[in-house]
Amino acid sequence: MFSRTFAYALRAMTYIAQESKEDQKVSLDELATSIQLSPHYLGKIMQELVRKGFLNSVKGPGGGFWLDKQRSDITIYQLLNAVDGDQIVNSCLMGRLKCNAKNPCPMHDEYLICRNRLIDLMKKTSIKKWNESIEL
Amino acid sequence: MFSRTFAYALRAMTYIAQESKEDQKVSLDELATSIQLSPHYLGKIMQELVRKGFLNSVKGPGGGFWLDKQRSDITIYQLLNAVDGDQIVNSCLMGRLKCNAKNPCPMHDEYLICRNRLIDLMKKTSIKKWNESIEL
DNA sequence: TTATTAAAAGAGTTGAATGTCTTTTATTAC
DNA sequence: GTAATAAAAGACATTCAACTCTTTTAATAA
User: Fold this and answer.
1) Bases along strand C below 7 A from a protein CB
2) Does B118 sit within 8 Å of A129, measured CB to CB?
3) Nearest residue to C27, CA vs C1'?
4) A82: part of which helix (H) or strand (E)?
5) Which of A31, A122, A127, B116 is the most exposed, having the fewest neighbouring CB atoms within 10 Å of its CB?
6) B103 to chain A: which residues are within 8 Å by CB?
7) Which nucleotides of D are covered by protein (CB under 7 A)?
8) Per-residue confidence band for B102, with pLDDT thresholds at 50, 70 and 90
9) Is B88 helix (H, G, I), strand (E, B) or coil?
10) Nucleotide closest to B48 measured between CA and C1'
11) What are the φ and ψ backbone dihedral angles of B64, each rounded to 5 degrees?
């Protein structure tokens, strides 16, 4: 439903939120090992997340990625939108070109309800909360 | 969320259910024109649907595709499964490799509920019902 | 039985997402 | 300032769904 890149980004944020502080950075290699992804590809994802302000990085010896305390309040919905955009959830489940309240398909209303429930929950779930809820 | 092929298959079944009888078949070209898809690609999709028993076809002059009355009772869920399989709906929304009732993610329960509501409705919606509900 | 029609089959192409490899840039430690 | 470290950047490769084009097979009609 969502992209793999989003899943990787979420796993990476999860790990970094747990393991990093400003004085204890996580290197790309450590991160790549922990989430089982090639460091090259993960590098691109991380680069993009840093650029968009989801976490911090510094180059050089002792460098790496880390997450400020206050940034663990960002939600998985924000992360999803940053990585995948919002086009995914804004189309007819059945692929009808024009499906709307005036001319809905039989799935339309139910899909809207479900979609909104899931989006609401994603908007309420911060990285911090996500981490508190799951066992790795 | 689902494949384009499924959307095309549904549109094709919709058109054929409306326009065909055993003595009034719909040709591939007519169908392709009506749903705005290249006849070659549509041909493959139709071929597969015929092979799987969702509708009938005959070659030659006057040939084409048609849907038996009783086959309009097949559901859009059956069509989806035939085209896309069922793997789509059976994975964690957030892409966790092992997400289950014992070790769920924060989205797990809500997603299960929504997923089941949508699947139930798809199982209840026959091609016939689908056609009665929508305006083209 | 031959020409025509129309689906079936198969080979090839494209584009986007995903993934790999190499080079560059920035930072630190000495 | 030089060597080492580690992220950033960019070029290249792979994969898969989606799509196109060509050939074959089956059915009909005359």
Assistant:
1) 4-10, 17-22, 25-29
2) no
3) A60
4) helix A76-84
5) B116
6) 134-135
7) 4-10, 17-22, 25-29
8) very high
9) helix
10) C8
11) 150, -160
Say which DSSP state B107 is in.
Answer: T
pLDDT of residue A135: 76
State residue B5's pLDDT score: 96
**What is the average per-residue pLDDT within B45-58?**
96
**pLDDT given for residue B75 in this prediction:** 96
Contacts of A48 (CB under 8 A, 6+ apart): A83
Give the helix/strand (H/E) hosting A84: helix A76-84
Distance, CA of A1 to CA of A80 (rounded, Å): 11
Q: What is the pLDDT of residues A6-24, one digit of tens each?
A: 999 999 999 999 998 888 9
**Interchain proximity B94–A76, CB inside 8 Å:** yes
Residues A31, A46 contacting (CB under 8 angstroms): yes
How many residues in chain B? 136
Q: Identify which has the larger pLDDT, A1 or A26.
A: A26
**First vs last C-alpha separation in chain B:** 22
Q: Structure pTM?
A: 0.91
